[in-house]
Design brief:
Blueprint: H1 2-13, H2 26-36, E1 40-44, H3 45-58, E2 62-67, H4 74-82, E3 86-89, H5 92-102, H6 107-117, E4 118-120, H7 127-134, E5 139-142, H8 145-154, E6 159-163, H9 186-195, E7 199-204, H10 214-233, E8 240-242, H11 258-272, E9 278-281, H12 285-288, E10 292-304, E11 307-312, H13 321-325, E12 333-334, E13 340-346, E14 355-363, E15 370-373, E16 394-398
Parallel strand pairs: 1-16, 2-3, 2-9, 3-4, 4-5, 5-6, 6-7, 7-8, 8-9, 11-13
Antiparallel strand pairs: 1-10, 10-11, 10-15, 12-15, 13-14
Helix pairs in contact: 10-11
């Protein structure tokens, strides 16, 4: 406890906002970088397990399906599988990553796992994917008539959940413009699926990624309860509700503790839905974001228009891709101490788009110095490329 308090005090002094659950100390990061080189993407499995345990602890009624798209590293999946997690997949490749963990199970146990602990949450699936999925009798999501036709023809043994459109107000990544049936057509779609000989198990929704507006959840719950009531009036019993993802990672102190959000969600779930209803969720960012740290090296330094500029060996086309694709900003922290000044930080490629930040408060760094970014585990390395011939950061695992 004393060491953690000293670390927190030091962070406050240097005005670096860090996640209080971070377990990788600076000396360890530097040691790993010296051993493995940079850029280095360090995944802390103690944080993965801790985040999953926190989700379970504060939402005990909800079965957590890790959204693999946030970070599909097979070792993360293995850690979560061993912790008893379920999985949300959005492609056949992601399904196969999970399948590797259950391949050697007896056939009956393997099939039970697929039905009970995997959901294919992408509402749009190509025909080849549906053909391949059908043998596993999975739970899949849909949101339109054409998808019903495809599922009926290519994956008739699948169970279905209808994704509905709900408010995404204020979420960092908005999703409702692309997916989700309007609530007014929901029951009709369920009836159409049933008439096609398909089994609709329940509803699904997503309030948008990194959702700090609890009203999105409350409205989504109310909309879902209304649809379930209408369905029941037409003789249709829905057995499950997938409340999606959006659970915010604590990138900084401005994000409220998860237990505060969970307290509200629990109250609304208990108020609106019977205990017999199965509740699913798809935490991805919440599990992965705070479980990784990037270490990079300063490879260049200049003065441009009176501003100090640093060039590091990771950037927008690599681990910092989340700045562009995920609308998330990651702070650059220095191991070197000293007086700071506002500086720009660029990635290694020839593209001016490869700008990590125009306003980082950094000391006077030298070529060869190391810098690091915390809470960078979700939607970062997952979208890293080899643009300009620069390979993605090497991945190392700690606390497995």
């Amino acid at each position: 406890m004393q060491a953690n308090q000293q670390s927190a005090i030091q962070n406050q002094k240097s005005k670096i906002k860090t996640n209080p659950k971070s377990k990788i100390q600076n000396p360890k990061l530097k040691e790993l970088a010296l051993t493995h080189g940079t850029p280095l993407f360090v995944i802390d499995h103690a944080a993965v397990r801790g985040n999953y345990a926190e989700f379970k602890r504060y939402l005990p009624r909800v079965q957590g399906y890790y959204a693999i798209k946030a970070n599909a590293d097979p070792e993360i999946l293995k850690t979560l599988y061993n912790a008893g997690a379920s999985f949300d997949v959005a492609s056949i490749a992601e399904f196969n990553l999970v399948y590797e963990n259950i391949r050697k199970l007896p056939a009956k146990e393997r099939q039970e796992f697929i039905w009970d602990k995997i959901i294919y949450s992408n509402p749009i699936k190509d025909r080849g994917t549906l053909r391949e999925l059908d043998q596993y009798k999975p739970l899949v999501v849909f949101d339109n008539v054409e998808e019903i036709k495809k599922i009926r023809r290519y994956a008739p043994h699948a169970g279905l959940a209808l994704r509905i459109r709900v408010p995404n107000t204020g979420s960092m990544v908005e999703l409702s413009s692309k997916f989700g049936a309007s609530p007014g057509e929901a029951v009709n779609l369920i009836e159409q699926a049933a008439e096609a000989g398909l089994d609709v198990e329940g509803l699904a929704f997503h309030v948008g990624s990194q959702c700090t507006n609890v009203e999105n959840y409350i409205q989504a719950f109310t909309i879902s309860a209304g649809i379930m009531e209408e369905a029941a009036s037409r003789g249709i019993e829905l057995k499950l509700l997938d409340i999606g993802g959006g659970f915010p990672a604590r990138y900084d102190s401005q994000v409220r503790p998860f237990r505060e959000l969970a307290r509200i969600l629990n109250a609304e779930l208990n108020r609106l839905f019977p205990k017999s209803l199965e509740i699913l969720a798809e935490p991805g960012r919440f599990i992965a974001a705070t479980a990784a740290t990037l270490v990079a090296e300063v490879i260049g330094k200049s003065e441009r228009d009176g501003k100090r500029c640093y060039y590091i060996n990771d950037g927008i086309y690599h681990t910092f891709s989340g700045i562009l694709f995920d609308h998330c900003q990651y702070r650059i922290n220095a191991f070197r101490k000293g007086a700071t000044q506002i500086s720009a930080v660029f990635g290694p490629t020839c593209d001016a788009l490869d700008t990590i930040s125009q306003a980082e408060e950094l000391p006077d760094l030298q070529v060869g110095d190391l810098v690091y970014s915390e809470n960078i585990g979700a939607y970062t390395h997952a979208s890293s490329t080899c643009f300009n011939g620069f390979a993605p950061a090497k991945v190392v695992h700690v606390n497995q």
